[in-house]
Design a protein that fits this description.
Distance between the termini: 29 Å
Helix content: over 70%
Strand content: under 5%
Order of helices and strands: HHHHH
Shape: elongated
């Protein structure tokens, strides 16, 4: 019995530490993605399609690196949603469709913004 309580306390501390660390990673990587999306949005609004295409390709490469790490931390459905939205954005930029590009860009921003808040250790997320 004297070992059970310290063991439980250590396990709880470990779980909290892992959760905080994973939240920080999700938060910083999603902020990085959102900054790239802001640059793409400016390029689309200025009809700078070549630069927008280059930035989307860069975002896609970055997402490829982050994707595998996120797969450990979050639901795969959310990753699939981001993959689909990124593909649509790339297609809309290729076709130079300003309205659909901006709409899909907003969807991607919301997806990136939603994930860290959804994974944060709060009573609401636990229950």
């Amino acid at each position: 019995m004297k070992y059970v309580v310290p063991l439980i306390v250590m396990i709880i501390i470990l779980i909290i530490f892992v959760d905080i660390t994973s939240y920080k990673y999700l938060y910083t990587s999603s902020n990085s993605m959102e900054k790239k999306l802001d640059v793409i949005e400016k390029n689309i609004k200025n009809d700078n399609w070549k630069s927008a295409e280059t930035c989307v390709n860069d975002l896609e490469k970055t997402w490829g690196k982050v994707n595998s790490k996120w797969a450990i931390l979050i639901e795969h459905r959310e990753i699939d949603d981001i993959d689909m939205s990124l593909s649509k954005l790339k297609s809309f930029i290729d076709s130079k469709n300003k309205d659909l590009s901006l709409a899909e860009l907003k969807t991607l921003k919301e997806l990136y913004n939603h994930i860290p808040s959804n994974e944060k250790l709060t009573l609401e997320n636990i229950l």
